[in-house]
């Protein structure tokens, strides 16, 4: 019988794929296929390599940030943290609706020997910091586009920024409530209280000892992310100014919060096309650039994450087989010794 949790995840996944398909149709409705092919053939591959390198620098900074948070819960070796984060990102790119975050917490339980609820608390802190950084990118970009570049107002992206601001406010209030002891006063089952307490402990990894470094690392992460995105768009024939890059990064990153298809397929394409068209640039380049980001940047971490999972699975299978051989050999030795004892008597 299918569990309720599995059924719920399947439904979320189906909904995510459906939403991604709708967004992809919207993104492609005014696209010139021949022009997309021409732009794809002319992509600057060296630029993509540079962008991928910047993306991996950002991932390395994310590892350091998460290690700092996990260090408040117990031992968090750098290599193990890096492995867990990369695997989590790979699974996130393969599964719809951001189910990879749950997988990351489960993997951390095995790899880091930390409770899933506590680990998930640190992931929520990460995501809230990222959301604040994304909103900052979007607001700063909109201000720069309007004041510095003299573009007309961008009501669509202004509405996105407003909604994101509301979302951030709600998230901050919810996190503050969870970090407080007020939930302990509610009449809940003991098992629920235990999970909530563990989760609250995880969210408290952001404290006076960690806040400064974690915030600085978050700023560095998103600086590298914006530079990587700009380099990809330039490689695909759409050169963005700093303000335009911030708007695209903010809007594209916010689109990944929507439960959607694996690799954010569809949502990324639609945001890229709308942004470039709003800036008076070629929307066809948006299709090429967004797909290049998914293939080169997201794809690289997915390949590495899957390689880690494969290596772990192979090693586990080898150890299991070796253990069985040892047990079988020990059993045979015991049997032979028993036979020798009987023959002597």
User: Given the C-alpha coordinates, what overall shape results?
Assistant: globular
Which radius of gyration do the C-alpha atoms yield? 24 Å
- Poorly predicted residue ranges: none
The number of helical segments is 12
Please give the alpha-carbon distance between the first and last residues.
57 Å
Mean of all residue-level pLDDT scores: 82
- The fraction of residues assigned to DSSP E strands is under 5%
Number of strands: 0
Helix content: over 70%
Order of helices and strands: HHHHHHHHHHHH
Major sheet size, sense and barrel closure? none
Whole-number count of domains: 1
Structural class by sheet pairing and helices: mainly alpha
3D structure, described in words:
- There is one protein chain.
- With 345 residues, the protein is mostly helical.
- Helix content is 79%, strand content 0%.
- Helix 3 crosses helix 4, helix 3 packs across helix 12 and helix 10 packs antiparallel against helix 11.
- It is globular and about 60 Å long.
- The chain has one domain.
Summarize the structure.
The protein is built from twelve helices and no strands.
Distinctive features:
345 residues, mainly alpha
Write the layout of secondary structure elements.
Blueprint: H1 4-28, H2 33-41, H3 45-70, H4 78-94, H5 100-112, H6 116-147, H7 155-179, H8 190-203, H9 211-235, H10 242-255, H11 267-278, H12 283-344
């Amino acid at each position: 019988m299918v569990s309720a949790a599995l059924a719920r995840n399947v439904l979320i996944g189906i909904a995510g794929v459906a939403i991604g398909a709708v967004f992809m149709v919207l993104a492609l409705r005014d696209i010139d296929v021949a022009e997309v092919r021409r732009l794809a053939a002319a992509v600057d591959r060296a630029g993509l390599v540079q962008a991928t390198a910047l993306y991996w620098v950002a991932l390395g900074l994310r590892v350091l940030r998460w290690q700092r948070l996990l260090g408040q819960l117990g031992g968090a070796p750098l290599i193990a943290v890096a492995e867990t984060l990369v695997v989590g990102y790979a699974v996130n790119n393969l599964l719809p609706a951001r189910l990879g975050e749950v997988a990351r917490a489960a993997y951390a339980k095995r790899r880091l020997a930390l409770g899933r609820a506590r680990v998930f608390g640190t992931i929520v802190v990460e995501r809230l910091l990222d959301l604040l950084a994304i909103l900052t990118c979007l607001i700063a970009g909109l201000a720069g586009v309007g004041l510095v570049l003299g573009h007309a107002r961008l009501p669509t992206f202004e509405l996105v920024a407003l909604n994101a601001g509301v979302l951030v406010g709600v998230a901050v209030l919810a996190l503050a409530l969870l970090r407080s002891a007020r939930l302990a006063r509610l009449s809940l089952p003991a098992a629920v209280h235990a999970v909530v307490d563990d989760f609250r402990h995880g969210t408290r990894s952001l404290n006076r000892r960690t806040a400064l470094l974690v915030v600085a690392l978050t700023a560095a992460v998103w600086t590298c992310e914006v530079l990587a995105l700009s380099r990809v768009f330039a490689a695909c024939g759409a050169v963005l100014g700093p303000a335009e890059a911030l708007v695209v990064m903010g809007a594209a990153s916010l689109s990944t919060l929507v439960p959607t298809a694996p690799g954010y397929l569809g949502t990324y394409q639609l945001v890229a096309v709308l942004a470039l068209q709003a800036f008076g640039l070629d929307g066809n380049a948006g299709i090429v650039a967004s797909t290049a980001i998914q293939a080169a940047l997201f794809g690289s971490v997915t390949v590495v994450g899957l390689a880690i999972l494969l290596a772990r699975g192979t090693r586990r299978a080898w150890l299991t087989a070796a253990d069985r051989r040892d047990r079988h050999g020990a059993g045979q030795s015991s049997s032979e010794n028993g036979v020798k004892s009987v023959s002597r008597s």
